[in-house]
């Protein structure tokens, strides 16, 4: 793991991202206040600068699994196919061999088939890996997102991660399982909102330059404090650093019960 900088940073020169000021006292919305408080807890990262096609492949490998499982698969794939043009190498890859290479990521037959098909499309439409990378960096975010969503196996979260981590685009707040749970549990989005509705709510309420950090910090917060089955507030209300901005939707410390926000009794009764 890379050493953290001596002080928190956000934005800067990498990938065209812009600098952000995290000050809870000046937050314009509750969602921004949450992100600003997370900004006091976690290192504020730089976004953009990754190669677009490699980022897309990496995100596909991460689907339905953990970083612990997908990172070795990515490393093995790059070791075997990363010399020269990555898209060309993967388009020519034998599916059983690629599946074996990425087996640690799970669903390896499905993922290897999708990666080969996407590599073939990238070569057909953009000529090579570099052409696709330029498209991700330079085309309008809406065009990039629409194109990515048209690829088999690429959903909204995968498309948004490519826009954020490769394109360095502001205003992109990818929603994974942690963000989906936490945004609804805190009351930042309707309790029964699907992932797209949560994304729309967060992107509307959080300034563009803070969305990327909000995504990564909310994931880290979900792993450390606000887990699916045992959020910190169950044992001790003061154990959670976000207690003052949380509505605890679906969390009941008095009984120890935790349910998906959409299944909270008050939500279900009003539905």
Word description of this protein:
- With 271 residues, this protein is mainly α.
- The protein has 13 helices and two strands; from the N terminus they run ααααααααααααββα.
- A two-stranded antiparallel sheet has the order 1-2.
- Helix 2 packs antiparallel against helix 9 (156-165) and helix 5 (95-101) packs across helix 6.
- The chain is globular.
- Residues 1-17 have low confidence and may be disordered.
Structural class: mainly alpha
Residue fraction in strands: under 5%
SSE series: HHHHHHHHHHHHEEH
Strand element count = 2
Give the overall shape, derived from the CA principal axes: globular
Q: Could you tell me the mean pLDDT?
A: 89
Q: What about the largest sheet?
A: 2 strands, antiparallel
Strand order of the largest sheet: 1-2
Oligomer status: single chain
Distance between the termini: 46 Å
Number of helices: 13
State the share of residues found in helices, binned by percent.
Answer: 40-55%
Radius of gyration: 20 Å
Which ranges are low-confidence, i.e. pLDDT below 50, for 5 or more consecutive residues? 1-17
């Amino acid at each position: 793991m890379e050493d953290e900088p001596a002080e928190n940073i956000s934005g800067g020169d990498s990938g065209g991202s812009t600098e952000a000021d995290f000050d809870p006292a000046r937050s314009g919305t509750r969602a921004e206040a949450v992100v600003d408080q997370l900004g006091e807890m976690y290192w504020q990262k730089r976004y953009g600068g990754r190669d677009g096609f490699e980022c897309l492949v990496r995100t596909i490998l991460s689907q339905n699994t953990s970083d612990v499982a997908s990172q070795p698969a990515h490393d093995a794939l790059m070791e075997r196919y990363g010399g020269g043009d990555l898209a060309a190498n993967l388009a020519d890859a034998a599916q059983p061999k690629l599946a074996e290479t990425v087996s640690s990521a799970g669903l390896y037959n499905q993922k290897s088939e999708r990666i080969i098909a996407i590599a073939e499309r990238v070569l057909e439409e953009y000529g090579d890996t570099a052409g696709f990378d330029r498209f991700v960096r330079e085309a309008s975010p809406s065009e990039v997102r629409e194109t990515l969503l048209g690829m088999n196996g690429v959903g909204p979260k995968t498309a948004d991660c490519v826009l954020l981590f490769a394109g360095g685009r502001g205003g992109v707040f990818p929603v994974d399982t942690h963000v989906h749970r936490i945004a609804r549990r805190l009351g930042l989005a309707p309790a029964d909102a699907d992932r797209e509705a949560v994304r729309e709510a967060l992107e509307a309420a959080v300034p563009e330059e803070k969305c990327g950090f909000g995504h990564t910090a909310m994931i880290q917060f979900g792993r450390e404090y606000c887990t699916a089955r045992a959020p910190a507030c169950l044992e001790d209300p003061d154990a959670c650093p976000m207690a003052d901005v949380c509505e605890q939707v679906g969390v009941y410390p008095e009984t120890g019960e935790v349910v998906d926000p959409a299944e909270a009794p008050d939500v279900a009764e009003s539905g």
